Amino acid sequence: MEADCLIPAQTIEEIRKKSDIVKVISEYVPLRKRGRSHLGLCPFHSEKTPSFTVSEEKQLFHCFGCGAGGNIFDFIMQIDNLGFAEAVRELGEKLGIEVEGAGPAGSGKSLRDQLYDLLQLAERYYQKSLQGPEGQTASDYMKQRGISEEVAARFGLGCVPDGWDNLYRYLLSRGADPKLMEQAGLVLERENEKGSYFDRFRSRLQFPIMDTRGRVLGFSGRSLDGKEPKYLNSPDTPVFHKGEAVFGLNVTKEAIKAAKTAVLVEGNVDLISTFQAGIHNVVAPLGTALTIGQCKLLARFADTVVLAYDADPAGESAAEKSAELIISAGLIVRVAQFSGAKDPDELVQKQGPEALKKALTESLPYLEFKIKRTLGRHNLKEIEGRGRALKEIGQLLSRETDQFAQKEYAKLAAAALKTTDEQVLAEARKLKFYNNPAARDLRRTVEKPPSRIIAAEKHLLALAAQNSEAREKLKAELPLDRFITIEARQIAALLYGADLSGEEAPEHKLLSLIEDEGAKRFLTTALLGESPANPEEILGDCIESLKGEHLKERVNAIKSELRQAEASGDTAKASELISALKAEIS
Fold first, then answer.
1. Cofactor note from UniProt (predicted)?
2. Rg of the chain over all Cα atoms, to the nearest angstrom
């Protein structure tokens, strides 16, 4: 990875040394100190029990659930989907260290940076258009929806006037490359006219989608001429992935952090209305179904999410789907309900900001919302309807781990179902039993090397990665083919071939050379292990263990071939193998 960029090695090392891995990762993942390490929910996969560990002492991270791991550069590359050079520069910017040559070898700015610059230019064009006579339609719409100029400016709202190529011609006049415009999702090439382009967004109020650093990633455009779609989002690009971004977070993240709660509304205009009502800890999921990527993003800033979706069956259904995803990301979910209005925007328009604040304050815990919705779906006047509702509620309560909450919700359901809370709890217990069968996984497992051998390989590689004497001893006494696992062999090949002399932290240099994710995980877990009190003795013992395992494998292979030769009557081959076997054993 390092070979693909022109950043001086000393700059990379300076940034690595000055970066505090716990502080940086805490910006993305809430961490709690546990012994000598810090623990949190993994940002790379869904989990409810924390298995993501960060070592301040060793400046490494590892997830024991999904296997993600590495050093500070690896984390930034994975979490922000960056290349090595871009990760180095991003960390350098945080530290105030100037990074020269951060693009790929032989280039100037990276593609991502060129796209950021172009999208910023497009945003300025849209904002300028909103302020001119061509923005009158958009201004009228904003007045109609009660969007103030101050808040519009705060969120960077703009407009694209009617016309096929207004933005294209503007960007062209500023020297932009049409192909780059296309990569940024701003223009489209005409199907039957190669080299001819037109604007993707036309006659729309533009909401810029930004990352938490305020960089424009793309746009969400609201139709002003009644044409479908009502909302049009930028396509996925090298800098924008719709399922991993939300609208407004660049403005509202500090309020969300302070409240430890994010209010999630369905649309961009709902967000603006909510913000203007004085509720600043609000975001919107770009008018599409919520994704696990968006949930993980919110989990970086909040413990709780209040769903403020439309008060109709479609909105309630969307709230249920969103809630399940949010819970899987380790967050608490509450659901706001609106009386006399279909959404937050209408509630503010009809009843004022205080009505919205009251609705959010009185939001229901998700399980209570779900139980009430289940009760409302069935005809509780009939025995059959109550029976079906009992089964559904039993299913819901079977997943509740808090016994006090389970009993309270059982009382609530029992009153509506005209039964006892004990019967509701019995249904929950029954369904919990049936939903957790003790069936064994009978899939054939791939044979793995003994755990003692894997442990020996990890001890050897961790010691050799950090200590030059151990490294030289290992190279002299243990050829590559003596390593048993593929991952250890890959790491050893790099270790034996790399010049790590003079490196202040050779283990981090070695990590940066590894491209295979499995090998990187293997070395990370090795480095996170406890340092032995007697490293020289451990080194010798582990070398002998691998030599012994290699000999055992070799002897077993020869014996297998010998049996085949004897069975087929090939005496010459059998004699040759017997000699080989004696040579190995002697």
1. Binds 1 zinc ion per monomer.
2. 30
* DSSP single-letter state for residue 5: B
d(CA 458, CA 463): 8
Tokens of 406: 């389970």
Cα dihedral 265, 271, 276, 280 in deg (nearest 10): 70
Domain end among 70, 95, 120: 95
Is the pLDDT at 249 greater than 90? The verdict is: yes
Give the integer Cα–Cα distance in Å for 554 and 481.
Answer: 11
Helix (H, G, I), strand (E, B) or coil at 284: strand
Query: Phi-psi region for residue 185, left (φ > 0), alpha (ψ -120 to 50) or beta?
Result: left
Q: What would the DSSP string read from start to end of 205-272?
A: EEEEEE-TTS-EEEEEEEESSSPSPSEEEPPP-SS--GGG--BSHHHHHHHHHHHTEEEEESSHHHHH
Q: Do 63 and 44 contact (CB within 8 A), yes or no?
A: yes
Domains: count for the chain: 5
Range of the domain at 172: 111-240
pLDDT in tens, 311-355: 998 899 999 999 989 988 889 999 999 988 999 999 999 999 999
Compute the half-sphere exposure of residue 116: CA atoms within 13 Å on the CB side of its CA: 12
Q: What is the mean pLDDT of residues 266-283?
A: 96
pTM above 0.85, yes or no: no
Q: Which are the contacts of 89, defined by CB distance < 8 A and separation ≥ 6?
A: 7, 99, 102
Cα–Cα distance list, 174 to 170, 181, 188, 201, 320 (Å): 7, 12, 18, 19, 47
DSSP annotation of 66: T
Decide which of 240, 272, 300 is a domain's last residue: 240
Residue 3 has pLDDT above 50, yes or no: no
Residue located via tokens 């990890």: 458
Q: Which residues contact 411 (CB under 8 A, 6 or more apart)?
A: 421
